C-alpha cells in the first residue's frame, strides 16, 4: 500500500483555502457542518463549486447553517440533511437518501469530546459510538456512492490527542472503567486505525478512492466546552473558553488540514494531515502519528468488531 504523507515540502507550505481546486460537478458530504471546522469546510467546498450536504443532528442548527452559508457564498449549492451519528437508524436513513448519486468527498468531521459517561441510542459509550462507530457505519453505507465517483475521498478527522491512548481490545467502549479524556483519545485512535484499514482494503480492491485522515490542531470551537457545559461546571467552562481563545487558532485555520486532505492533488492513502507548527497551528502539512495507529492486527480487530457492533459490511469489488 502506498504510504501517503498528506503532502510535503513546498506543496503544502502556505497552503490556504484559496488553493482548493475547482469543485464544480462534485458532491461533498460533511458531518457536523453546522459549526466550527465542519461549517468552514462546507462553506469553502461550496465556494469552490461543490454541491455540499450539511449533515447535522439538529434540524434548526442545520437549517441556520445553510442559510448562513448561502448568505456568505451567494449562489452556492448547499442542503441540510439530518444525521445523528449516535443513532444507527438515523445513519441508515441518511445513507439511503444520499447513496443513489455519486459522492466525491465524505468528510467524517463530527465528534464529541470528553463528555460525562453516557450511551448512544444503540447502547455504545458516546465518544466511541459517535466519533468512530457512527462514521464507520456511514462510510460503509455510502461506499457504493463513493466508488461511483472517480478519485473520491474519505477524510476522517482525528486529533493530536489520539496519543492519550491505544485501544483496549477487551474494553473497546470503556464500559469497564471510564475516564473521559482516555476514552476520547481512544476514539481518535480508532479514527486513525479505521483510516489505515480502509486504505488497505481500497488498495487491495484496486479502487481509486483515497482514505485519508486529518486533524485541526488546537482550534477555537465549541467542542472544548461541551463536556463541562453538560455537567453545569460553570467555572471549568469559563476556564476552557478562555484557554481556547488565548491559544487556539480560528476555525478557518483549523479546517485547512481537512480541506487539504479532501481536495489537494497527490494526497496519499492513509495520510495524516495537520497544522505544521508543533501539530498545533499553521498551514497544513504531514503530521506525526503514534505507531499504534498503523498496527495492522489492531486495525483488523477493530474493523471486525465495528462490523459486528454496527451490522454494516463494506462491499468492495475484487481487484
TrEMBL record:
Listed Pfam families: adh_short
Source domain of life: Bacteria
Keywords per UniProt: Oxidoreductase
InterPro entries reported for this sequence: NAD(P)-bd_dom_sf (IPR036291), SDR_fam (IPR002347)
Gene3D superfamilies reported in the protein's UniProt record: NAD(P)-binding Rossmann-like Domain
Assigned protein family: Belongs to the short-chain dehydrogenases/reductases (SDR) family.
Name of the molecule in the record: Oxidoreductase
Species per Swiss-Prot/TrEMBL record: Streptomyces evansiae
